[in-house]
């Protein structure tokens, strides 16, 4: 992956969880990174400075709200002005709400569609002209296994992630002759801080141990009965960002322990 060194990436939703590990992983390959997301300002600065110190790259932070198109446009513009290029765009920001559709709050539907789907449209819209001018670029959208299959009580999330798959295919066709690729990563369950909180809450609500919740609730759909790891996701990300992955375009890569194979 030496061909990644010196490139620039913007990763939305990268102040924690999968996004932060994507940023750290790319930085480990010599990629300069623009962080984005919410959280405690001191903690975010600690992560930003830590990436620079540990990996010897440049790291910056922009707190653009993924529900606000103007702020998203500024995020892409600032990335280009700060680093001089924009080589990799990772659309990772996302939120979740679980509820029967007849009880699903309207504001939560709107927020999930905005953050999980529409924000990717806005980042791509502003990144593509930069990448076309460069004659190269990599766009990676985090779609989730729920971009390929559905689960009950997740209407907004599943709708948004299916939309991301369609967006990925369309963008891939539009940029294919410009040295740009657009692909989607579709993880199964990853033991992120958000999922860890869900495990604890579910164990308490159902009178189960956390291990029982992991195996019989969270991982019931994954034949491997194991969470997808950050390092596994990073391996796929590195491939898609590198020259080795340049032939992949408009594809959806499920990394789900066998979930979709059933």
TrEMBL record:
Q: What class of enzyme is it?
A: oxidoreductase
Alphabetically list the UniProt keywords. Oxidoreductase
Q: Which GO terms describe its biological process?
A: monocarboxylic acid metabolic process
Highest taxon of source: Bacteria
Q: Record's InterPro entries?
A: 3-OHbutyrate_DH, NAD(P)-bd_dom_sf, Sc_DH/Rdtase_CS, SDR, SDR_fam
- The chain's coiled-coil residues are none
Q: Which Pfam families match?
A: adh_short
Its Enzyme Commission number(s) read 1.1.1.30
Q: Which GO terms describe its molecular function?
A: 3-hydroxybutyrate dehydrogenase activity
Q: Which family does it belong to?
A: Belongs to the short-chain dehydrogenases/reductases (SDR) family.
Protein name, please? 3-hydroxybutyrate dehydrogenase
């Amino acid at each position: 992956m030496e061909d990644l060194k010196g490139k620039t990436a913007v990763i939305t939703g990268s102040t924690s969880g999968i996004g932060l590990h994507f940023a750290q992983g790319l930085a480990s390959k010599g990629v300069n990174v623009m962080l984005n997301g919410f959280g405690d300002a001191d903690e975010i600065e600690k992560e930003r400075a830590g990436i620079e110190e540990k990996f010897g790259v440049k790291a910056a932070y922009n707190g653009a709200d993924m529900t606000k198109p103007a702020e998203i446009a500024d995020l892409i513009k600032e990335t280009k002005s700060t680093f001089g290029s924009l080589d990799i765009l990772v659309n990772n920001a996302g939120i979740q709400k679980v509820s029967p559709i007849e009880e699903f709050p309207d504001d939560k539907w709107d927020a999930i569609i905005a953050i999980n789907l529409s924000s990717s449209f806005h980042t791509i819209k502003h990144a593509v002209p930069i990448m076309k001018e460069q004659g190269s670029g990599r766009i990676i959208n985090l779609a989730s296994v729920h971009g390929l299959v559905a689960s009950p009580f997740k209407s907004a999330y599943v709708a948004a992630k299916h939309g991301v798959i369609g967006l990925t295919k369309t963008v891939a066709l539009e940029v294919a002759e410009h040295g740009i690729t657009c692909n989607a990563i579709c993880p199964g369950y990853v033991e992120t801080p958000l999922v860890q909180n869900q495990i604890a809450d579910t164990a308490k609500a159902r009178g189960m141990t956390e291990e029982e919740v992991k195996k019989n609730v969270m991982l019931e759909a994954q034949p491997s009965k194991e969470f997808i790891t950050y390092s596994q996701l990073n391996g796929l990300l590195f491939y898609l960002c590198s020259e080795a992955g340049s032939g992949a375009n408009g594809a959806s890569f499920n990394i789900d322990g066998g979930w979709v194979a059933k």
